[in-house]
């Protein structure tokens, strides 16, 4: 018997990054999207090395009606801003921690957009990647009751983990 390919659910979030070397940073976003059962797709796109792929991906994001694109990049991190220039799909920018400047360069490259083309910018590194995924879940939760319930449960578990810590002396 041959294995049947399972139909893949249509992605609701796009996750892109400027290089394969960004993958470790972005893994936290992928893990959380999976935990919330939000279908996603992943692409490596570079504003500098594959600039021709940016308008193509932006058009795809609109065609698929993605709720948002999470875009991680480091150094001269133009990927989130350039994608935002090509599409009205909300772009959540994750500054990857660079070797030379510890991600300060990535952060400023992503956050300092000119008025008119916004990129929602998150913390440098893995915290930013995770929070971008949680933000994507919050966006979907405005219209999706199942995602809303999972997000509420995630928050409740996070709170319990703090309050149930034996080192927490309570109030
Ligand atoms: C950026 O340059 C990427 O987002 C990555 O963070 C950085 C370094 O890329 P590699 O030289 O490791 O491919 O475009």
Automatic annotation (TrEMBL):
GO terms for molecular function: 5-(carboxyamino)imidazole ribonucleotide mutase activity; phosphoribosylaminoimidazole carboxylase activity. Its EC number is 5.4.99.18. The keyword Plastid does not apply. InterPro entries: PurE_ClassI (IPR033747), PurE_dom (IPR000031), PurE_prokaryotes (IPR024694). It catalyses: 5-carboxyamino-1-(5-phospho-D-ribosyl)imidazole + H(+) = 5-amino-1-(5-phospho-D-ribosyl)imidazole-4-carboxylate. It is an enzyme of class 5 (isomerase). Residues 11-162 form the PurE domain. This is N5-carboxyaminoimidazole ribonucleotide mutase. It comes from Deinococcus lacus. The lineage of its organism: Bacteria, Thermotogati, Deinococcota, Deinococci, Deinococcales.
């Amino acid at each position: 018997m041959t294995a049947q390919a399972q139909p893949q659910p249509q992605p609701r979030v796009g996750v892109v990054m400027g290089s394969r070397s960004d993958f470790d940073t972005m893994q936290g976003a992928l893990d959380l999207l999976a935990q919330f059962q939000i279908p996603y797709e992943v692409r490596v796109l570079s504003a500098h090395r594959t600039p021709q792929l940016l308008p193509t991906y932006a058009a795809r994001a609109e065609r698929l009606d993605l709720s948002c694109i999470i875009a991680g990049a480091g150094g001269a991190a133009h990927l989130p801003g350039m994608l935002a220039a090509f599409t009205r799909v909300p772009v959540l920018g994750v500054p990857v921690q660079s070797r030379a400047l510890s991600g300060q360069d990535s952060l400023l490259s992503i956050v300092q957009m000119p008025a008119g083309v916004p990129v929602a910018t998150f913390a440098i590194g893995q915290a930013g990647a995770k929070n971008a995924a949680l933000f994507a879940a919050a966006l979907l939760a405005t219209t999706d009751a199942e995602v809303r319930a999972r997000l509420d449960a995630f928050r409740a578990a996070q709170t319990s983990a703090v309050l149930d810590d034996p080192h927490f002396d309570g109030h």
